[in-house]
Design brief:
4 helices, alpha/beta, 7-stranded mixed sheet, Rossmann fold
Length: about 210
């Protein structure tokens, strides 16, 4: 689906998709907020167990997680499992407020809040998403095709935009992290969307089919 006509203005279809996504985002966030702390904790532990059993983790693997914002699933148990398996763990860092570029820095050091209020590593050592092998991705909603609806900042889509040009090697495995109640029938897609490869919920893993490009 094209995001805009030739003159650069958004198409009617793109505008309609944006409106529908905004409504879906509000509904999905409301459902997520309604979950009790106990449900959230149990889901985080179950997802870590599913990650441990996935076969994705191995010594030397470069895995990116995230520091959960309010409502997002805490993946600290997932990161602990990855470290015990010998993986190195990385966290997102926003490199420029103006251009909002995201890279990844080693976990385990000092943290600071960036201009968006998101905790991130202080270290200057960082890498691009191409260098990673597994990326755990937070989300608000996800559909049966692996189309992810985030908070609307577009950080992951921009960091992984090069994947849309690849026909063979697609870079890191993108694994959404969600409660099963965040799964929906359809997320209206936009041209810049980067689909997930897999999803982990408290019920187990879901693998999405590859789409022809």
């Amino acid at each position: 689906m094209s995001d805009a006509p030739d003159d650069g203005t958004p198409s009617d279809a793109a505008i309609a998709a944006q409106v529908a996504r905004a409504a879906l985002r509000r509904e999905a966030r409301d459902r997520r907020r309604a979950l009790s702390p106990t449900v959230r904790r149990h889901a985080a532990l179950a997802i870590a167990a599913h990650l441990a059993a996935s076969g994705w983790l191995r010594p030397g693997l470069r895995l990116a997680g995230y520091l959960a914002m309010p409502g997002e699933i805490d993946v600290s148990a997932c990161l602990a499992v990855a470290l015990r398996r010998g993986a190195s763990v990385w966290l997102p860092r926003i490199d420029s407020v103006r251009r909002a570029r995201m890279s990844f820095a080693p976990a385990g050091g000092a943290l600071r809040r960036n201009a968006y209020g998101i905790p991130e590593p202080v270290t200057c050592s960082r890498v691009g998403a191409r260098w990673l092998q597994v990326v755990l991705v937070p989300l608000v909603a996800v559909d049966e095709a692996g189309t992810r609806l985030g908070m609307g900042g577009g950080f992951y889509d921009r960091a992984l935009a090069w994947r849309r040009l690849r026909r063979r090697w697609q870079g890191p495995r993108l694994v959404g992290i969600a409660h099963s109640t965040q799964c929906v029938g359809h997320v209206p897609p936009l041209a810049h969307d980067i689909r997930l490869d897999a999803l982990l919920t408290e019920r187990g893993p879901i693998h999405f089919r590859k789409h022809p490009r």
